[in-house]
């Protein structure tokens, strides 16, 4: 931690040194309007990570002030994501909606101080009156309402006497402030909508700028960490707390750069569209950048946290290459998971000179992985190899089986092609081969040189599996919309063949399929009778840009 302290931890350490707070308290404050994505993982890692590093605590707060988009389902998804990443929030989950009564009292206090007023301009007029960067705004005539009238109107807004948009509550700050956000920002708006927690109790809902700082204060937050786009909102944050004289402890806002990753989108609105319009199978579709999607794809929490650590915390927005995320999962699984064999597009090979059957002893791990374990691989005269591991007219540099070139069957023998059998259309249907009895892996005395070892499965003992091959969701680095979706982001192989130990022994739920990549037994659809494996990532970064 010390070797590369980020700017947020530097701030926290300075505050600790200055005895500014009794305890470091952070919060992760999502709006429950969608499933959290990898960007939220960054925020979770920062907020919970800082609390952990400085013996403080982190709250999980649902920032639920928008009744039309929020749902308990998303609350559950957010809790799941935080827990899965390995963090614990302090006490119960908090909800901004639990603070509605308190927030309302603070609003009345501002009115009484002459610092807030009910405005009755239309939305359009409010925008027009605000002015521009070069032109100061002007204040609404309604800003001169008396305290009594303002209190009365706010109460009636709350009770539902007015239609949406008829009035708003605004802070009375400065209509010519250089920071446009400070030109009498909105504090409350009318919404006649059912809230998933407070039902129909409220007809007014606090705006982010009012609710957020006060929720932080109510919870005793010391460091309120948010993304860069809120930089200009910081003045309002400070104004509300200072005007109300809320000081012990007084939270401060600090901004960091949002995470963006290429070939995907990170806005819940766009992700919701993919779900609602069935472009993906759900929020947990393995192609989604959601934590639920990455999890179902087979990503580990360790790989995601390591990714968040690697990208660091910066003050300037940037785009991270998805290859870096892929590197992190590959790196994590490389030292952990068993190597097994799967054939995606089977081509039958009959080994003419082999009689009977045997069980070959095969280690699950290569020598450079310090893990133990092996399985028995059934072998007989009929096996399947990958169709493209054979070539009748091999291009230069083709190292696998050809009519002239022998190949090793991984963990087994060297075979040579004797005859190629084709159907009426000329498609290859079978290879007749011979094996070399003295070439067995581990005790090879044949002296035959081969250029590669290929995966294979025994024709009689292999199990059929569905394999889902995932590719990037979008075809371009900075997708704009649906037109950029990758039409080939999912390819389903219904009749792949896997060696039996995967299913009978279950040495793990994640595997390296030799020469294919890393795969994960789909946690939803997998059964022993109908196994389903998701491709997590290929063995190397071979994606063509
Ligand atoms: P979206 O555009 O996906 O709706 P949001 O900022 O509205 O994002 P919230 O639920 O309000 O989503 O975010 C909760 C917390 O996560 C906030 O503190 C927010 O700053 C942070 N966060 C959201 N997206 C990212 C991201 N891409 N990178 C880093 N932090 C993020
Ligand atoms: Mg938000
Ligand atoms: Mg949002």
UniProtKB/TrEMBL annotation:
Keyword Manganese carried by entry: no
Catalyzed reactions: L-aspartyl-tRNA(Asn) + L-glutamine + ATP + H2O = L-asparaginyl-tRNA(Asn) + L-glutamate + ADP + phosphate + 2 H(+); tRNA(Gln) + L-glutamine + ATP = L-glutaminyl-tRNA(Gln) + AMP + diphosphate; L-glutamyl-tRNA(Gln) + L-glutamine + ATP + H2O = L-glutaminyl-tRNA(Gln) + L-glutamate + ADP + phosphate + H(+)
Cellular compartments per GO CC: cytosol
Keywords: Aminoacyl-tRNA synthetase, ATP-binding, Cytoplasm, Ligase, Nucleotide-binding, Protein biosynthesis
GO BP terms: glutaminyl-tRNA aminoacylation
Molecular function per GO: asparaginyl-tRNA synthase (glutamine-hydrolyzing) activity; ATP binding; glutamine-tRNA ligase activity; glutaminyl-tRNA synthase (glutamine-hydrolyzing) activity
UniProt EC number: 6.1.1.18
Record bears the keyword Lyase: no
Similarity comment: Belongs to the class-I aminoacyl-tRNA synthetase family. Belongs to the GatB/GatE family. GatB subfamily.
Quaternary organization: Heterotrimer of A, B and C subunits.
Annotated function: Allows the formation of correctly charged Asn-tRNA(Asn) or Gln-tRNA(Gln) through the transamidation of misacylated Asp-tRNA(Asn) or Glu-tRNA(Gln) in organisms which lack either or both of asparaginyl-tRNA or glutaminyl-tRNA synthetases. The reaction takes place in the presence of glutamine and ATP through an activated phospho-Asp-tRNA(Asn) or phospho-Glu-tRNA(Gln).
Protein name, per record: Glutamine--tRNA ligase
Upper classification of the organism: Bacteria, Pseudomonadati, Campylobacterota, Epsilonproteobacteria, Campylobacterales
Residue span relative to the full protein: 1 to 545 of 753
